[in-house]
Amino acid sequence: MSITRYDAARRAAHAGRRTGISTSALRCRRKFLRFFPKGFRDEGYIGWEREYKWEAYEKWNELLNRTAYHLLLQQRQFSEIANQAVKIESRTNLLFSFEKMAIRDAVKSPAGARRFAEGLFDFLHGSGSPENKFKRWIETLAALPRKQTRVVTWPVITVFGFIAQPDRHIFLKPNVTRIAAAEYGFDFHYSSKPFFETYASLLEFAAVLNRDLRDLKPRDMIDIQSFIWIIGSDEFAE
Asked: Do residue 33 and residue 69 come from a single domain?
């Protein structure tokens, strides 16, 4: 039996009463379900938003899982690591073209590839607190060779963690996320200059969404980030 937009709106209203979420949050939920009446299992949602992100994760898990990544580091295959990471990301539309170019140029040299490969492994699998690892990752990116375009943007900082570990990391598109947070009624502590506090605030927003949308059963940060995109992007203007 198909789910109509009327059914989706009625379900959203019922869920809002049951979970006690705010009016603004309920409005965002209704918008999401108007576009994708079956929620995160909607065929349109999977085809438009989830599938290509999940395919990037699967390719990463195939080529750069922790064991394979560590072996490549031991073999000093820094350029191979960097090239594989950039290639996997390039199959998505997560970064702007100038950001793709910046990171690709930054890892062309042996020194840049090594710094990137070692820094990213530390971010994904290293020891220390999430805050300290995040700070070290920003420092790694800031130290990469650059030509014309800066490497340290929020999308570049967050894209590889999101692809590699969508169970714990989320992707930050600043403008869309700020709009979505405002629409949802979440106080997102954003700074254009990269600080862990901004990322921690985004993770808090993701936790709120995961709680509020639990009846729709989001699987991971891919679903949460996609919800944010749908709420804040002009592509889904009503």
From this structure: no
Q: How many domains does the chain have?
A: 2
Furthest-apart CA pair in the chain: how many Å?
58
Domain co-membership, 45 together with 56: no
Residue 89, domain extent: 51-153
List CB contacts of 1: < 8 A, sequence separation 6 or more.
Answer: none
Q: Which residue, among 93, 89, 118, has the nearest Cα to 103 in the 3D structure? A: 89
Burial-class residue 209 by CB neighbours within 10 Å (0-12, 13-18, 19+). buried
Q: What is the pLDDT of residue 148?
A: 66
- Please give the Cα distance from 160 to 66 (Å, whole number): 14
Q: What does the alpha-carbon distance between residue 228 and residue 205 come to, in Å, rounded to a whole number?
A: 10
- Residue 238, both tokens: 């009503």
Please state the rounded mean pLDDT for residues 167-174: 98
Residue with tokens 């299992």: 41
List all residues 6 or more positions away from 129 whose beta carbon is below 8 Å from its beta carbon: none
CA dist 65 and 60 (Å) reads 7
